[in-house]
Design goal:
The radius of gyration is 30 Å and the shape is elongated. The chain has 2 domains: about 100 residues, no CATH class; about 200 residues, 3-Layer(aba) Sandwich (Rossmann fold). About 60% of the residues lie in helices and about 10% in strands.
Length: about 325
Amino acid sequence: MAFSDSQYDELMNIYYHNQIENRALEKERKAQVYEKLPRIKEIDQTIATSSIDAIRSRLRQGSDKMADTKEQNHQLIAEKEQLLTANGYPADYLQPIYTCPLCKDTGRIGNEYCSCFKQAAISLLYRQSTLDQILQVENFDHFDLVYYSKEPDGKHPFTPYDNMNNILNKTRSFIETFDKLGGNLLFYGETGLGKTFLSNCIAKSLLDTQHTVLYQTAIHLFEDVCGDVIMKKGQNPDSRDTYRYLYNCDLLIIDDLGTEFTNSFVSSELYDILNTRMREGKSTVISTNLNLQELTERYSDRITTRIFAEYKVFHFYGGNIRLAKRRKAIQQ
C-alpha cells in the first residue's frame, strides 16, 4: 500500500524514538562498565584509535596496515568479551542495541520494508480504522454458520444457511481480488443477522494485508465527522483527519445506514462520499437494516441508482443471530 505523508511520518517516528532510547541505553551500559572495568574503556579507545590510524596511513602513504590492525583488534575484542563474561555480563553487552536486529531500526532491508515495519503499519492501520478491539473477536475465524437455519423459510429460494454460505464465499472472493478488482458491497436485512460482523471480517482481512480501512457508523459519520467539518468549520482536528480519510482510505465501511437523521445536508454528503470514491476506484461496504424499497424512499435517486448499479447487493435473512448467541451464552 501507499502510505499518506502523515502515516509514514508516524511510522518513522516510532523508529526515531527506538533509536534514541537504544542509544541512551548503550551510553548507560558503557558508563556502568567503564566505571567497574577501566580496562574495557582502554580497549575501546585503542580499537577506535588504531582503526583511524590505519585508514590515515593508507590514504597518506599508500601503505596498508589494515590486516595487522584487524588482527590486533580481534585479540582486543576477545579480551574485552572475556572480561565482560568473567564479571557477570553477556559477551555482547556493549554491542549496539536494536529493537529490530534485522533492519537495525531503519524499517528497511535493502529496498524492501522490514517485517517489523509491516507489523507497525498494520498496528497503525488498526488504530486508524477504529476497529482495533472488536476485530479480535469479529473475524472470519469466529464466523459460525451454525446459527443459520438449514430449513426453508417459505419466503426465499434458499435456506438462511445456504444464503449466508453464498454471501460468505462471495465476500472471501471480494477480499482475494481486492487489489485487482476492488468493488463495493451492500449488506441489507433485519437487525442481528451478521451484517456488521461480516463487515468487520472484511476489515480485518484487509488490515492484515496492510490496506487502509475506516469504519464509521452512519450516525457518527454524518453528525460528528461531517457535521463538525462542514457545519462547524472543522473545530475538532480528529474530525478533519477522519473526513480526509473518508475519501482516500482503501475501504470505507458505513454501518447502519438509515439510522442517521436524513436531511439535505446528509444526502449531499453521502452522495459526495460515494460518488467520489467510485470515481477514484475506492471500495465501500454499506450495511443497513432498511430493505431496498425503504432505501429508495429515504434517499435520492442519484444515490440509490449509483448503489444499485455499482454495488453487489446481498440480502441477509433468518433468525436473529445476536439473540441466539445471547441465549446460548446464558445456557452455558
